[in-house]
Amino acid sequence: MRSLSSLPISKLPVQHDASKLSSKISLSSSRHLSSNPNLIEPSIHCDQSHRLYDWCHLRSPTILDPKRATFSSRSLSPSMNPPIVEKVRPYPRKTDINSMSNIREITLTTKLSHSPCTIVHDTPALVFSIGGYTGNFFHDFNDGFVPLFITINTLFPDQEVTLVITNYTEWWYGKYEAILPQFSSRPIINLDNQTVSHCFPSVVAGLITHGPMTINPNLMPHRKSFIDFHALLEEGYRKCLVWPPPKIKSKPRLVLVSRSGAVGRVILNQDNVIKAAQEEGFDVVIFEPSAYTYLCDVYRLINGSHAIMGVHGAALTHSLFLQPGAAFIQVVPLGGDWLARTYFRNLAKGMKLEYMEYKVQPEESSLVEKYGKDHIMIRDPNSITNTNWSALHNIYLRSQDVRLDIGRFRSCLKMAYAKAKRSMEHQGNETLASKTTNGSLSSAWALIQSLQGEPIICDRTHDNYDWCFLNRPTILDSNSTTFYTIGSQHSQNPTTKPTIMEKVRPYPRKWENFTMSLVSEITLTTSLLDKPCEIYHESPALVFSVSGYTGNFFHDFNDGIIPLYVTINTLFPDQDVTLVIADFTNWWYSKYEVLLRALTKHGIVNLANQTSTHCFPSTAVGLISHGPMTILPNDHPYHKSSFLDFRSLLEIAYTKCHATPPPPLKEGKPRLVFMSRAGKVGRVILNQHEIIKAAEKAGFDVVLFQPTKFTYLCDAYRLINGSHGMIGVHGAALTHSLFLRPGSVLIQIVPLGNEWLADSYFKNLANSLKFEYVEYIIRAKESSLAEQYGLNHKIVTNPSLIIRGNWSALDSIYLKGQDVTLDLNRFRTYIEIAYSKAK
């Protein structure tokens, strides 16, 4: 059973005695409480069982008396119990008595207050301190932002909060202003300078930590991880203005975190280290941060680099800004083993960095000169540091410098270079794609920026889509699927400005005439509609169709969800939108409802059943597509989006929904999801049973998965996301590989005539999602077409000749008219390769 301390606030049982927590109380008890929060009997729940932190929750409408740092109840429900009082110092270093003595104590009480509310907030308060070791970059994150992320995602996973901060300093706010809105969109309250009362629905005081530089997904309701924390940092820092970093050369960039002066852990032969790194192939950038370093600049430098190295110290916390897959070299001085392992090795693992440790030998430490190589401080640092923090701090951290053995260090540099080179190639492929695409995000963004004054902006230059943007307040006349301008001077004075009208079929397959004929046409006009607004929306409308090939799982994503994601991140990168859907079907909405909620917080407007007028600040019609199963990273200055970001959105959506648990993993065996096809659908594996046995013999735990149009996607996500690989013949069902985690194995079996489709769709997808991709291209004798037409027929010997310009032949012969019988001996080689990657 989950610990109460890991439950969201909304699921916590009511506790009238904060010292007695009962795990037997129903976790759903809060569902039966009165809908009026003012009638809830006040209670306090505290968790004081942890070594590093305490937190308490006053479950009642509450009022803050800032002078006394006291939160009192304002519930209208009389309590039969005596008032409860709890005191918390909201900083997660409970065992550090000296540090905690400087943290302001916060009081929570169920005692009723009749004081009036000066300022009323509609979100719970989360109270924490930035005292303690704040000002040290490591502690700012280890004791501050990482616990704040954990606490919000543990206690308020689906809720906004108001941050109330004590021991406040203006420099701290100035330094971290870019990321604070990612934790809460509400203004921050500086508890120390308040002179008026504040009222909240409830209050939590204290921060939860999982240990030094650790985020444990198993302790989080939605299994948030350091990757999610990094995504939060990226969202914050990519929006702020920055000086451009050094131009990336054709070499992987290594950021060398430098130390100088009498601070300890200085690399005394840094110039030699830089030269060695350059000789191995790195472009080296020296980085020596201070308390006043502008983090937007730092983020852009490090996030655009491919490796970081430095001696153990607070500045290595900047490795949080690296992209997953980058190389991280930590130089570990004598006596620093435990700290290095506990702090930055944990961080590197959580961030999916390629981590390497270079442990300093005694002869490389300056302590040898001071104490001699036979001194116990040199021979056995652990005997000194295990019980004596003062000695660790004063001797091994503050008084030790290092002079690296360049010959020995080169081997570490060589490994780091190989890993960094791979990281650069991944980043480089994305950058190249964004520059060469005909439908790059920057072109759409630039078009909008260049035509800001125009009432209607359209882009009809692409082969597969059109889009138009009515850049005025608009009103929707649902009877005619037309968006009119509200109060437009163009419509009011037609003699000087002619009416503008544009029509769009909002589905990204405009080259297919028949398909597009099934898509509703949407009209945008600067004409005025003489009707009142009956429903107002605060966000722009984005109109698209779910007609066309909707119902085929591949097309649902390729022509729908993925272009929708691209369009939102192109046209509305910093805005929420209201989705207005043409050609709506209830089954589609039910199937993708969970995912749609991750794309917008507003209700969906079904264009087909509206009887009222709707008004919006502006309206975009149409979806932008980058091509088959492709998301080209956004080279808009602050909004670089990729398939990995799209997958993060899927994870955010599908980890929230209830799902049937998949079969348990078999100990020591990677799970392979086998995408099965049956019946007269084409591309069936006729010897499927033998293939499964071969996969099991190779070491896989095989789970059969045969999805239908009505498969519950929360169940599918949970099964596939918890697996290590997927195998199947080219077909729409392989789109479920979107649910695999990066690093998983995807085996695509490619029938005759399917090579182009296989490359364009799922090989592209696999590369973008960082899968280990394995392709098994069948030979003529493995195809059922050989039996039907003979091995020497041109349908078998030259499929490209048949297919060229003839989609009907591709569909009827090579997709629907072909099954496969795999050569077991040949296939075993591929499955063994796949197993080694999945393991």
Automatic annotation (TrEMBL):
* One GO MF term: pentosyltransferase activity
| Compartments it resides in | Golgi apparatus membrane
Q: Which Pfam family name is an example for this entry?
A: Glyco_transf_61
Enumerate the spans annotated as Glycosyltransferase 61 catalytic domain.
244-328, 632-747
Topology versus the membrane: Single-pass type II membrane protein
| Xref: InterPro entries | Glyco_transf_61_cat, Glycosyltransferase_61
The protein's UniProt keywords, in alphabetical order, are:
Glycoprotein, Glycosyltransferase, Transferase
Q: Does the keyword rRNA-binding apply?
A: no
Q: Which GO terms describe its cellular component?
A: Golgi membrane
Q: Cite the PANTHER family for this sequence.
A: GLYCOSYLTRANSFERASE
Protein name, please? Glycosyltransferase 61 catalytic domain-containing protein
Native source species? Chenopodium quinoa
The uppermost taxa in this organism's lineage are: Eukaryota, Viridiplantae, Streptophyta, Embryophyta, Tracheophyta
